[in-house]
Amino acid sequence: MNDNLMNPDQGFMSYEQFVEVAEQIRGVRRLYLSHGGESLLHPRFTDMARYIGERRIARSFGIETNGILLTPGIADELFAAGITIINISLDAADAVTNASLRVGSSFDTIVKNIRYVAANAPEGCRVEIFSVLTAGNVEGIANMPALLHDLGVKHYRTMQLIIRNEEMAAHRISLPPELLSLLKKQCGEYGIEYRHYANPSRTYCYQPFKEMSVTWDGKITPCCPNKTTGMNETPYDLTNMWNGPAIRALRHDMVRRRFTEKCLENCDIAGG
Ligand code: SF4
Q1: Rounded distance, CA 122 to CA 48, Å?
Q2: Rounded to two decimals, what is the model's pTM?
């Protein structure tokens, strides 16, 4: 779901639509209740998590969140629902850098919430922090392992910024090898599992073979950046749509190393 109401293309998924989707994907291996926006803004998010957990819709399910609304009360509800993955974005190890990257965000609140979640997550629930590396935070990122150790976090991931437009291109940075080695070393010393994702191949994308996204209004897309529409079919049957003509055509192009126009327009993986 995508809950950023600042964009007219975005909104809250209705609970009825959510149930319809959930019932059609029963047995799926992994489900993320997120699609680019902040899912915890949804007024019925914890009801949705409970629905997934109680009915065992997915073998594993999780959320990606900025952590602001992940209060101890909400975290406890998610733990009770059986959530297995909590990914929290934190791009800086200090309040000043965080404020410069995320206007209106509260470093202290995020850190407090992370500390609670890391200390109270039940066995089987993986809590991972991830940082998107940009020119604005790369310098201080070496301080992150010590902070995460203090917060009790055991999993950390850094990612290269995926460029969606020219403005973002100005912030792109590659992680220098010496910094990557330092992060690995520090995380190793603290017992934190660490992974770094650099930009994937520019000649091929596995996304349409592996995942499918359902937007807040029930539209099917092959991934978060690809705004291809017209993949929906009538009747609304996700199993059929997973193998529908539109997504098969996209896979057909991918195996021939051909990105579609929408990929080229919207996604850094395709050089867009
Ligand atoms: S937009 Fe295209 S290249 Fe980018 S992740 Fe989606 S399918 Fe892959």
Answers
A1: 19
A2: 0.88
